[in-house]
Amino acid sequence: MKIEARNTLDNMTIIQINELEAIVQTHDGTYHDIYLDNRFNFDQRMPAFLFAWVENYLIGFLSIYADNIEEAELSVIVHPTYRQQGIATALIEQAKEIIKSFRIADISYISERRFIEKTNYLHRTYQIDWHETEYLMEAKEMVEQEYPEATIQVRKAVMTDARSIASFQAKAFESSFQEAMTYAEGSIGEDDHEIFVFLNQEGDIVGSSSVNTTEEYYYLFGLAVDPNYQGQGFGTQGIYQMMKQLNAEDERPFRLSVEKENAHAKHLYQKNGFRVISEVVYLNE
């Protein structure tokens, strides 16, 4: 077995990762897809992708996501045939060395309840806060809604929107303005990644949401509404109008994640046809 670390991915390697992930998900009954991009890592020089190879066959993969120096999130998968051979441990140990060299403070691991309940060792090895989990939700198709006269407009963001987006996203996600600006500028106009903005009747940007487009589905994330306009239906209508526009371009299922404790948001998404398909769990040492 050979372990390799890279900070970029080419198309052929992405195909190999996707093939391994499909095998793992079918075997484990899981749904969460690893995010295969380092554009939002605070230092793109960091080798964020680790591979375990047997000759030219990918048997293990680990991804490091760290958009700030406070914490790195690790996702790791191993081919079912090659488990219990120390492959995940070897990948994690090398990832820890990389994380240490970039002076990142903490590490968490992304998993799913369904997988954790099948494996006794994870309960013994890691700390799990079952109140801090997320529901992964999916809508196979849109549910038509009847809203009163539209109070918002929705369109794809352009680069001149970046400062407005960063201004309220920094408040909504409790991040720095610079972090929010980096995220906005890195998302606008990308082929597989877009930000949609929500505008009120005066034409002011009052909210936004992002979408990552995969071959199989649209993944919605980063919903934020300016605190001055919350509670007025901008999020609900914005998501609905955004889904309609995406569906008009190419019909495919939608997915998103919502914090388990956020019953209001879960209800909002259920109104738009989403149902829970998995529970994403964060483990800490």
UniProtKB/TrEMBL annotation:
<dbReference type="Pfam" id="PF00583">
    <property type="entry name" value="Acetyltransf_1"/>
</dbReference>
<dbReference type="GO" id="GO:0008999">
    <property type="term" value="F:protein-N-terminal-alanine acetyltransferase activity"/>
</dbReference>
<feature type="domain" description="N-acetyltransferase">
    <location>
        <begin position="7"/>
        <end position="140"/>
    </location>
</feature>
<feature type="domain" description="N-acetyltransferase">
    <location>
        <begin position="152"/>
        <end position="285"/>
    </location>
</feature>
<dbReference type="InterPro" id="IPR016181">
    <property type="entry name" value="Acyl_CoA_acyltransferase"/>
</dbReference>
<dbReference type="InterPro" id="IPR000182">
    <property type="entry name" value="GNAT_dom"/>
</dbReference>
<protein>
    <submittedName>
        <fullName>GNAT family N-acetyltransferase</fullName>
    </submittedName>
</protein>
<keyword id="KW-0808">Transferase</keyword>
<dbReference type="InterPro" id="IPR050276">
    <property type="entry name" value="MshD_Acetyltransferase"/>
</dbReference>
